[in-house]
Each structure stands twice: as C-alpha cells, then as structure tokens.
Design a protein that fits this description.
single chain; mainly alpha
Length: about 280
C-alpha cells in the first residue's frame, strides 16, 4: 500500500512537471527550458543527500549513468516524436511502451500478482492509453519514422525507470544524483552545440525551475516506491502521469477534457483500487 501511494505521488509529480515544462516551452526553445529545469532538479537531489543518504559504488554508478543517458535520450526522442505528430496517436504509444516494458521486466524477475492484480494491471495499461490520448483528426496517420521514434521514446523512458529500480536499495539517492548529473551534462552540451538555433527568447525561469523540482520529486518517489513494492505495479501506476497533466490543463488553461480521457480517468481509478487490493 505504501508503494502504491508513493507511485501515485510520483505520477502526480511527473504530470505537474510535464505541464509546467510544456508551458515553459511555449515561451522559449525547449532546450532553454531544460537548461533551467535540469540543474534545478539536480540541486534538489543534492539537498536530499544529507537527509536520505547516498552510497556510491561501481554498481550504483553504472545504473545511474545508464539511467541518465536513457533520460537524455527520452527527452530528445519524445519531443522529436511529438513534433512530427500526430500527438493523439504517438503520445499514447509512448506512454504504453514506457509502462509495458517495466511490467514485463518485473514479471520476468518473479513478481507475482493475485487475481485483483491480474485484472487491475491490464486495466491500468488501458487507462494510460485513454488518458494520454488527445483529440485529433481521426484521418491522421503517423509515418513509420514517427512510430519508430515514439516507440524509441517510450523505450528510453522505460529503461530509465528500470535502471533506477536495478540500483542497490541501500544506495540512497546516489542513483538519482548520478543519473541527473549525466542527463544535465548531455542536455547542456546539446544546447551549447545548438545555441545558434535556440532563438533569442528567454526561458520562464520560475516555471522551468519548478518543473525541474517536481521532476526530481517524481524520480525520488518512484525510486522509493520501486524499493518497497513490485516494479510491475509501480511502473504502470507511475505511467498514469498524463492524468495530472490533463486535469491541470483543464483547471488552469480551461482545456476541454474529452470523453475518452474521462473514461480513462475512471478506468484508472478502478485499476488503482484493484491494485491496492492486490
């Protein structure tokens, strides 16, 4: 039950971070937003070091570096995917892959679910697709390149989560610190190489920094949840993060919540209840 609550908190934090990051990216090039968000996220994890502790070893460094590289790849692939579109097809694909792969890894490592869990898990995967699917033209069909990029983005997100889970449970926040350091370095290097293409607009500093703080909190909650519960359950609950983004967009931007997304939110509530019983 603790793992479930932590995963729900992680999902909510990821959704809020994506919402603020998306708003920030409207004001300036997305790399300018990340140049503020990434160091802010790393700063939070460094502040947590004295509180939660951090134990660095070769294994921790290995999994931390792998998660950081995957995080940077996920960022690049995700935004390239959504830029090609259509978002209403590619966003659910990315979210589904990011949930399904950790589920497969967890089950392959011997995790077992009761009857309620066996029903709740596929329901949660369906909810991920429904909630993340926006309203778009039904005739729009993604290209093969877009589909491959969407699958790659979901895979990169999944690899990041799996690597964090594989890090030793007694390592504290060390995997997060290593991973965020690597991801920040890669992102800042990319921004430096592309500086002439970033445009003159300044990023929304407060909004971007808040997004980074929330992303750091989401990573921490996922790490704690995966250490106290099954990866299969934690990953699929965390992947419900589009629900938080949808609800914030409705409340702050007055964006319409479409019928399919409402069904997805209801399905998610049922799935979480079943997984709690499991």
């Amino acid at each position: 039950m603790i793992a479930l609550l932590l995963a729900l908190g992680s999902s909510l934090a990821y959704g809020c971070a994506d919402f603020l990051g998306g708003l920030g990216a409207r004001k300036a090039h997305v790399l300018r937003t990340v140049m503020v968000a990434a160091p802010a996220s790393l700063a939070i994890e460094l502040l947590l070091w004295p509180v939660l502790g951090a134990s660095f070893s070769l294994r921790v460094l290995g999994w931390g570096v792998a998660s950081g590289v995957a995080s940077a790849a996920a960022f690049a692939l995700l935004y390239r995917t959504l830029a090609i579109g259509p978002m209403n097809v590619l966003s659910p694909l990315t979210a589904l892959v990011s949930a399904a792969l950790p589920v497969a890894v967890g089950l392959s490592q011997g995790e077992r679910l009761g009857t309620a869990g066996l029903v709740g898990l596929p329901l949660a995967l369906i909810a991920v697709v429904l909630v993340s699917a926006g309203h778009g033209a039904g005739s729009a069909r993604p290209s093969r390149t877009a589909l491959l990029l969407g699958f790659g983005a979901g895979t990169a997100i999944a690899v990041q989560l799996i690597c964090l889970h594989q890090a030793p449970s007694d390592s504290g926040v060390a995997p997060l610190i290593v991973g965020r350091t690597v991801a920040s370095t890669v992102t800042l290097a990319a921004a430096g190489l592309m500086r002439r293409k970033l445009g003159p607009e300044r990023p929304a500093y407060a909004m971007s920094a808040t997004a980074g703080v929330l992303d750091s909190l989401a990573n921490l909650l996922f790490l704690l949840a995966s250490r106290s519960g099954d990866l299969a359950v934690v990953a699929v609950i965390t992947a419900l993060y589009p629900a938080g983004t949808v609800l914030l967009a409705r409340g702050v931007l007055a964006e319409r919540v479409h019928r399919g997304q409402l069904v997805g939110l209801g399905t998610a509530a049922v799935a979480v209840s079943l997984l709690a019983l499991a």
